[in-house]
Amino acid sequence: MTLPGRMRPPAVSVWCDGVQLSDGRDVDSLAPMVLSGLRVQWGRSTILDQPAPATCVLTLLDALGGQSFRELVGIGRTLSVRADATVYPAPGAVVLMDHQFTAPPLPPLVAENGSASLGGTGALKLVADKATQPVVLDFTPGPSESQGGNPAAWDAVPRPKAGQSWAAAVLVTLPAAFAGYTGWRAAAYPLDYLAPWQRGAQRSDIPLNVTGAAVTYVPTPDAWQGIRVVVSPTGPAWNELDRTPWNALDSRSWLDLSTFAVDNVKLTAPGAGTQRSGLVFSGRITDMEARFDTGSGATLIDITAQDQRSELANRDVGDEPWLAERLDTRFARIVTLSGQPIKYQIDSAPAPLQVSWRDVDRQGALTLLQELAISADSVLWCATSLTTGPYLDMEALGQRPALSGLSQGASGIVTIGPMDSVPGQVTLDACDLSRDPVRWVQDVADVSTRVAVTWREQTLNDKGQPAPTDSVVTTADPVLEARMGTRRVAVSTQLAAQADAARLAANILGRTSSPGWRISGLTWDALVSDAMTSDQLTRMMTLLDGTTRNGCPVLVTNLPPWSPVDGRAQVPLFVEGGTYTSHDGAWQLDMITSAPTAAGVSCKWEDMPSTPHPVTAWRWQDFHPSIRWVDLSGVKVN
Fold it and tell me: What is the mean pLDDT of residues 515-544?
């Protein structure tokens, strides 16, 4: 039994071609079931690698002896692994707030053929553009994303479970009768959102009251809920008014006749728990091996699946030379020529980089895309979302949030330390982590003193045809090199500008020239606890979800005294990959992390406190003498 205020850890569900496979909880079922020990391996092991295709390995038990499983699984079929959590709001908890509209901010809403603003009567003022057009006002579960925007924007918003009853209420006040006209009409309906953007809204046919009385209804399972208000007609036509003289009419204007009050908007989730789910893995089955188990008398089927990048690796593209062009244009070209209908997004920093003329001569699409990511100091993830499915995400390391910040202590010395508040950061309490596998590692294998980046100068041959020449730009740390000897990293790119290559070399040197501590064996095991707090559940779902875990910033707190980190009680990290295992229906997260050195947004000159006041201005001599220029990469003012 779950304790009050605590919730079950995220469960595991496996789906093949949209059909959920049994997990053995239905003891009367003889359907093939997924055994404990499912494993998802994803991400990259070092900060210089690109992530390999994510892999899911599981074993299916077919109690009927080996025929039933053939109807459910097979080579080439889609395989998805979900993390499913039940979130228990307080009884009567309001999902879409009871808006009295007495003060800003307005709730998330979208108005069509009209405008909505705060009224002076404690209600929302809805004004129609034209009396001949209906006004549609949508109250969304959260701020609406642009089409195809961040699919994880509403991950924390509760969603209905199958068969649940929710309650919705809204009050619409129509204008008072005018010259005999009383024809204004208003209606309201629940909205289903399958994605966090407005075009994803589907109106339910369930009518809601517009008198403020709550209506109980059964929403679509797993769809975010909103409320749509429709007003039509929104005003009278000339021939619908009686012959009341002008001087006998009230003081309302024509605009007032198409102005309505919307109030007491409320959407209430049941106390029985709402749904929160995330995709941990999605891909296709690539390998199957069936064997007979003498102990159980059943067939065991070992199944391996890989994400969509595995398919891209087998798609050769390009039989004609490519001109020099923007990186995002080259990326789109490769995806199109691969013939794989996969979505993608590219961070703003790498998109405009110029890449070289290229005689590609048929190479694997994945290799070419990863080559672009390396050239742009980026990581090419294969993200996956319940709302969009899998998509490629080129994440620029320089656009990660800064995890370290400059601050001036009571002594007046400016030092670098963890940021107080980082967008999207997940806090991991050391008390929640398994102590035994944790290792603090520091060795020279992580250190470089010299980085050489090859770029392609856009030269011509004697016939005037493009014939790029490989050139090398090198960046070194002479002080570190004198102490540790020459430790060289070489990177080959498709960059067409020397300045871009020099910038890449400096970034890589910044991340690899400091022999800092990294943590291995960072393991969070949900099996050790039968229940979680709401905050713990939210944090674990963020790390499980294939949309939000990639490069996720984490802050490990309450470090034990034996941790070799200069006496600090907390350390910031980025999640770069891991092995996620399911044991008896509970998740164990074994994460690979990286230090935030020279990764993330950096502060600019104008960000530095420079007020003439002698107390607030930072002087050169106020900075701790150990801070170097290279240490300020990926550091903000705290």
Answer: 80
Show Cβ contacts of residue 306 under 8 Å, excluding neighbours closer than 6 positions: 53, 54, 55, 56, 283, 284, 286
Q: How many CB atoms lie within 10 A of CB 64?
A: 12
d(C-alpha 595, C-alpha 392), whole Å: 24
Instruction: Please name the residues in contact with 209: beta carbons below 8 A apart, sequence gap of 6 or more.
Output: 169, 170, 188, 215
Which helix (H) or strand (E) covers residue 404, if one does? strand 404-408
Whole-number pLDDT of residue 416: 87
Question: Which of 278, 277, 279, 284 has its CA nearest to residue 79?
Answer: 284
Q: Which two tokens stand for residue 575?
A: 């999640």
Place of tokens 């979208």: 110
Task: Read off the pLDDT band of 611 (50, 70, 90).
Answer: low
Match 């420079």 to its residue by tokens. 610
For the chain, the average pLDDT equals 86
Residue of 399, 440, 421, 426 whose CA lies nearest to 554? 426
Say which residues have a Cβ less than 8 Å from residue 390's Cβ, sequence separation at least 6.
Answer: 282, 283, 307, 308, 342, 343, 382, 383, 384, 546
> Is the whole model's pTM more than 0.85, yes or no?
no
Residue with the larger pLDDT of the pair 258 and 516: 258
Q: How far is CA 30 from CA 37, 65, 67, 70, 72, in A?
A: 20, 10, 12, 14, 13
Angstrom distance (rounded) from CA 362 to CA 365: 9
Q: Residue 190: is the preceding peptide bond cis (ω within 30°)?
A: no
Give SS3 for 195: coil
Q: Provide the token pair at 638.
A: 């705290």
User: Phi/psi zone of residue 370: left (φ > 0), alpha (ψ -120 to 50 degrees), beta?
Assistant: alpha
Handedness of CA 303, 304, 307, 309 (dihedral sign): negative
Closest CA to 416 of 211, 582, 626: 626
> What is the pLDDT, as a whole number, of residue 3?
43
In the chain the first and final C-alpha atoms are separated, in Å, by 43
Provide the pLDDT for residue 1.
36
User: For the chain, what is the radius of gyration of the CA atoms?
Assistant: 29
Torsion of CA 488, 492, 497, 499, to 10 degrees: -20
Q: Do residues 574 and 634 make contact, with C-beta atoms less than 8 angstroms apart? A: no
Coil, helix or strand at residue 367: helix
SS3 assignment for 568-592: CCCEEEEEEEEEEEEECCEEEEEEE
Q: What pLDDT band is residue 59 in, cutting at 50, 70 and 90?
A: very high
CA distances, 325 to each of 330, 331, 354, 458, 497 (Å): 7, 10, 6, 12, 12
How much is the average pLDDT of 486-495? 93
Distance CA 613, CA 30 (A): 77
Whether the Cβ atoms of residue 185 and residue 233 lie closer than 8 Å to each other:
yes
Query: What's the number of CA atoms in the CB half-sphere (13 Å) around residue 310?
Result: 17
Q: Which residue in the block uniquely carries the two structure tokens 């893995």?
A: 281
Asked if 565 and 543 touch (Cβ cutoff 8 Å), the reply is no
Cβ(613)–Cβ(439) below 8 Å: no
Q: Which amino acid appears at position 506 of this protein?
A: A
Dmax over CA atoms of the chain, in Å, equals 98
Measured on CA atoms in the order 307, 308, 311, 316, is the torsion positive or negative?
negative
